[in-house]
Every structure is written in C-alpha cells, then in structure tokens.
Amino acid sequence: MARVRPRLSSTALTLIAMIAFVVAIVAVGQATSARRGDDPTTGRGGPGTEELNEEAEEQAETVEKRLEAMEAARREGRVGQRRANTAGGPAGWTGEQPFDTDSNDWEPAIAADPNRPWVYAIVTRYGEKPCPGNCPDPFIAIEISSDGGATWSEGAPLCACNGKGQFDPIIEVVPATGHVYALYMKGFNVLFTASRDHGASWSTPVKTYGNVAWTDKPVIAMSDDGRDVYVSFNGPTGGDPWLAQSHDFGATWTQTKLVQSKRYYYAFDADVAADGTVYIGQSSLRYSGPQDTPTGPVEEHVFVSRDRGATWTDRLVASGDVGPACDAEGCSADFYLAHHALTVDATGRVVLLYDRALSAGGPQRIEARSSTNRGRTWSAPVVLSKPGENATSPAAESRGNGDVRAWWMETNGGNDDRWNVWYRRSTDGGGTWSAAVKLSDAGSGADYKTPDGFLEVYGDYGEMAITNRGKTIAIWGEGFSWSGPGGVWFNRER
After folding, report:
1. What is the pTM of this model?
2. Is the peptide bond between 237 and the residue preceding it cis, with omega within 30 degrees of 0?
C-alpha cells in the first residue's frame, strides 16, 4: 500500500511518533491508535493502516527529541514566557504579549464575533493534563474574551475527553447567531463541537470523517446562519483532499474525496461567501525526491462550490518551486513550504495569500491574488513580503468592501535563525497594501526571543480575527526550534 507523505501535519506527526515510541517499548506490532484498523475507538480498517504504521515507526525518534527538549528546558529554567517588555507596541497596537506565560503552546487558532465583543482562541498545549486519569496530552486549551481581546479567561480544556492526544484546533464564529464551531483531531479523527453560550459549554464531539480511514489537518467554514458546515482534511490515499459537509448545523456528515492523485494536499483555510459560494484553499506538492524529499511544482488551488457542496471546481491559482528546507532541531525539510490563507469580504471578493519560491531552494515570498467573479479568474500577484527574505505561513481575514488584513512570518537579514511577524492591510480588495508593521515587536520575554526576532516558527499555522469594533487580533507560535519548547503570542489593535 502507498505510504503516507513523509510528514503529516507536525502536530499529528507528534502523536504518531509518541504512540510508536510506547509501542516499541511494550511490544512491536501491538495495537496502537496509529494503526487505523486496530483503533479501539472505531474498530475500522481500510486504506491507510499500513501507511500510518510505517510513518509511526519512522517518526518515533521525533517525539523523543521533543520530550528531551522540553525536559532540558525545564532543567535550565527556560520553559514558559514572561510578560513582554514593550514601549506600547507599534503605532495603533497594544504590543506583543504571550497567550499563556507558563505553557508550551503550539498552533493557535482565533475567531471573533462580528456583531458582539466575544473573541475565542484555542491552542495545542503540551506537557499538561486537563484532568486526572486517562486525559489527553497534548490537549486543546481555550481562552475566551468578552471585551474584544482586552482581557481573557483562564485556559480550560475544549473537551477534557479521555484517551488520545488532541491536535490541530480550528475555531470559527457563526456570523448570524454568535454560536461557536470548533474542530480538533483525536488521534487521526477530526471531530466537530459547538457552543451556543459563548464557550461556557460545548456539545458532545461529533465524528466528521465517516468511513474515511484516517484524516489530518482540517479547516472549517460555514454559511452565515451556521446550517451548512464544510470541513476539509487530507487523508487516504497518500494525502488526497477530502470534504466533509453537514447541512443540519453539524449534526450529521457526508464525505467526498475531491481529488485522487500522487500529490499531497494541505488545507489551511476556507470561507463561505454571503451568497453561499464555498471556497477551500489547498496547497499541494509531491514527495518524489531522494528519501522522499519534497519536489515541485508547489501548487496553490482553490476548490469552489456554487451549489452548497454538491459539485466542486478545482482552480489552479498559482505555482512555484520548492523553497528552502528547514534545518532547525527536529524539523522536516518541508516545514516552510506550501501554506496559504483565504478570505472573502462582504461583497464576495476572494483573496488568496500563499508562500512561493521562484527557484529551487530560493527564498519564498508572500503573494496575494484576488477574484471578483466567484473564483473563475484571478488577478496578477501582489508581493507582500520583503525581497530576499524567506517568508512563510500567511494568515488573512477580511470584512466590508475590500477591507483585507494579513500577516506572515519572515526572516531577518536572510537568516533563518531569526524570524518576525509582519502585518499589512488593503482597503481595495488586495490591489494595494499599507506599509508593513512588525507585530512581533517584543525583543524579550522568553529565552527564544531577541531584539532581532525569535529563533523558530512554532507550529504549522497561526491565525487572525477582526472584532466587532473592526480591530485586528493576530496570534502565532514562537519557539527555540521545531522540537520546542515554545509558546503562543498575540498582538491586537487598540
């Protein structure tokens, strides 16, 4: 059977490796959650079982390095974040602050109610357990703000569910109702949960994946009333893009494979326009180089449905080469590659941002393209990042008529040893953009932070939200290396 890509999403990768490490100690071949057919929670077999088992064996060393890094940092007193020492932040911003001062947090997501002052942020939290007994580690922690992000609740588990670790959190607010929808992975199962009381309580998690053997790296989008919900993830065989959809507020789900190919697809963002048109971004590449290294072209797709998910059109928007390989501790070569962000404004204009290299091994840049005809054609690219720097992992959000905000990670001086987060805004739907503002403005506050930037991108993604007052909140991860430890940081407009 075809093997899984050399790197599943890095959070899920950690789960596979952790399981494999335990298995190696107890007994080779014993049932584990990395083997879909032996999963005691599902009892399902099918395509993907051998893929995951092979991946688990190969990546057992990865989790050992991450655990060793955490323990070493604890011994040396380098775990956690201190309050940032800023002079008030860049003009119009409060200044960079840690999401949590004590935790090892990775891959944050954030959402804001467009009509009310509620904001919700969730992270993958390592090294802690939310309850006694068989509780997950890592788990998804949520913090809630009722005043537009000025103050936050204490971190609490999204679901203190017994069993496997939880990964890849995504959260969104239903525009018309203020209800909150969230996704996370338990093992390699994407689950959906909802709150109708501003995050005070959450529904029992619902399986979105049906009989799909394994799922990884989900995104979510919904209609304005929350009835139509769309979840995209990759899965068998070898990273094909899948679509799960619900038309009863997330109660029941059906699944469709969008493409079957030898390319691996990553879903990083999705959105639904006011007229119901659905847009799902997908970055794709192949792993056909020596020792399964990534090969180009790296393609940026947008899948579009104009009939509530009944049929889909695949639009190839851009393509580029394979950029620089990540060489940080624990990092796989493809960590900086194949990211995108997608957003739709109130008029139906779509903006897609992505990282793209112009030559093999050359630095990636952040480009933006827009569509005003429901994804049929796209504008020429507009470059947002600084020439000569390596840029990755864009995030974007929009509202109104052409009001688009974006941030991305970028090296400082062409050196991957220092990174910063930069922000720009467009008022004409992505045609022109404001001067860049550095959001990661705190030059201290953790041992991985310096005046020149932080040491490494910590997580495959971060996000952005716009509050009901029109203020931007950006959230992302920083760390010593891919192995960590690290933490989540945010900055918000005043």
Report:
1. 0.90
2. yes
